[in-house]
Amino acid sequence: MEINITFSCQCGAFIDEAVYCDGPNVLAKSNAASLREYWKTLICDGCGKDYDTHILCTLSDTNVRIPNVVDLNFDVHDLFEEEDVAAEIESTHQLDVYRKVSTDVVSLLRHPYPQEVQATLNNMLFAQVVTAVEAYLSSSFISTVMNDDALIRRLIETDPELAKRQFSLKEIFTQWEGLKLLVARYLKDLIFHDLKKIKPMYLSVLDIDFGDVAWLFQAILIRHDCVHRNGFDKDGNQQEIKSETIIELVKQCTHLVADTENQLIARQET
Ligand SMILES: [Zn+2]
Asked: In the chain, how many domains are there?
């Protein structure tokens, strides 16, 4: 199962992480006997502080404990939110969506807005560009892999988390469709919460190398501040993102998207 955990760090940053665990012992004869405990470490992006997270799962309940955290919230997701994931597998509009959003961002930047709204607008636009490229990369990966059984197998074999999951032969032979949804859902959440993982995945599963995308990971960090701090730093100063910086980001993202799209098309043709 997947548990989405959110809380505020003492440094002011907001932590929003998905953790995975195998849940309770579903074969247990009583609720008490079904208890399984898991320990995970969550790390604050803002200050690097470690949070020891204790997860307790029984058949009737899931509980999360983190010492010294006051606003802890968590949501337990069943791994089978089928409609959502099935739509992602079938989607073919990733490129259209990216194109629409990136052209809209450029139009908005060119529009003459009053000077006093520019910093807030640029904040939103910067975050939107990062979200657009992220959505393209994750959705294209999911639909490409999930529509090809050989690629699913390659993913399961090469991904460290999925390899740990150890699918039984019985699951593979009798529950292939269900297993596919489970893998797709895992991918969606994993990538959503940590885009860094997508680069090695494209390489190991699809043989697509993004090259040096340090600029993208840097942009993701800046987006984090745009979203979680409204673009203000710890001292309350609004950080201005220049319009040229956003145009440059759009160019780099479009280049990455076009390159990836060409390689995905080339794959299909071979
Ligand atoms: Zn922190």
From this structure: 2
